[in-house]
Write a structure and sequence with these properties.
With about 260 residues, the protein is α+β, with helices and mostly antiparallel strands. Helix content is about 30%, strand content about 25%. It contains eight helices and nine strands. It has helices at about 10-35, 35-50, 75-80, 125, 130, 160-165, 175-180, 240-250; strands spanning about 5, 70-75, 85-90, 105-110, 140-155, 190-205, 215-220, 235, 260. Strands 1, 2, 3, 4, 5, 6, 7, 8 and 9 form a nine-stranded mixed β-sheet that branches. Helix 1 packs antiparallel against helix 2. The protein is globular and about 45 Å long. Mean pLDDT is about 75; it is low at about 1-65 and about 220-225.
Length: about 260
């Protein structure tokens, strides 16, 4: 299996959910056929086991046909997952004419591209030391720890946007020179993301086609286990994220932007 749940607790929760479903099905059978009391006792026992086993993965939340996954610098993903950052600035990869959001909800695939310390504000590399040192090719597997939902998206050609949105990201001014000025004919896409930390994390078995200078990788053929969304933790609570949303929209009034609807 390409994904592995990184905890025995997660496996137990799947059994837990299965036990609950078994209870429902068996209870229906009891009602229809007046089954023996022994079966009812078995159902109750199964329900008690289910309640005693803490669920980490919901059996009702499956990755069905495809799961689009956005490749992003591991440090930015770590900052999103901790709540230090709520926006991404994107341009298309070498293989893409421009950046386009492929989905509203997606996993984040950590990369080591452009891992220069000067692209980060002071102290950020040290704060996210493990993410900064990540080399995805060094191991056969890669942990996927953050799931994101787009809550707003805009494009702009104004390079000042990085400085104007300074409270909402961990990048330094050098990031503008090396990343945002690249392909000047392309607009900068600003994504506002609500991040969830996956608990337990998912682990991807890496293949060569996962690597390359492109923004999205479709892991459809790789998905075989449920995504741990129900037990995920929001990087920011509702009140804190709402405040960040208000700040972002106030700051964007200083920049000419086009809002994306999809």
């Amino acid at each position: 299996m390409a994904f592995a749940i990184a905890s025995r607790k997660a496996a137990s929760s799947v059994v837990c959910a299965a036990a609950k479903k078994t209870k429902i099905a068996a209870a229906a059978l009891l009602s229809a056929n007046n089954a023996l009391p022994a079966i009812e006792r078995l159902i109750k026992a199964g329900a008690q086991i289910a309640r005693a086993m803490p669920a980490a993965v919901s059996i009702d939340t499956f990755l069905h046909s495809r799961e689009p996954t956005l490749k992003e610098w591991a440090v930015a993903i770590a900052a999103l997952g901790s709540g230090d950052q709520t926006v991404l600035f994107r341009k298309g990869g070498i293989r893409e004419p421009c950046f386009k959001p492929s989905a509203r909800e997606f996993l984040l695939f950590p990369t080591a591209f452009h891992s220069e310390q000067q692209l980060l504000k002071e102290g950020v590399a040290e704060r996210y030391e493990e993410a900064f040192a990540l080399d995805p090719r060094a191991n056969p597997t890669l942990p996927l720890t953050v799931h994101a939902t787009i809550t707003g998206a805009w494009t702009t050609f104004d390079l000042r946007v990085l400085q104007i949105l300074d409270p909402l990201h961990v990048h330094s001014e050098a990031f503008r020179e090396t990343r945002l000025k690249w392909r000047g004919a392309q607009p900068i896409t600003i994504l506002e993301l609500r991040a969830l930390r996956l608990e337990p994390q998912l682990v991807l078995n890496l293949r060569e086609e996962h690597f390359g200078c492109f923004s999205w990788v479709d892991l459809a053929s790789d998905l075989s286990l449920p995504l741990a969304l129900e037990s995920a933790t929001s990087a920011l609570d509702d009140a804190a994220f709402s405040q960040r949303q208000h700040i972002l929209r106030e700051l964007l009034l200083q920049v000419e932007v086009t809002e994306l609807h999809f």
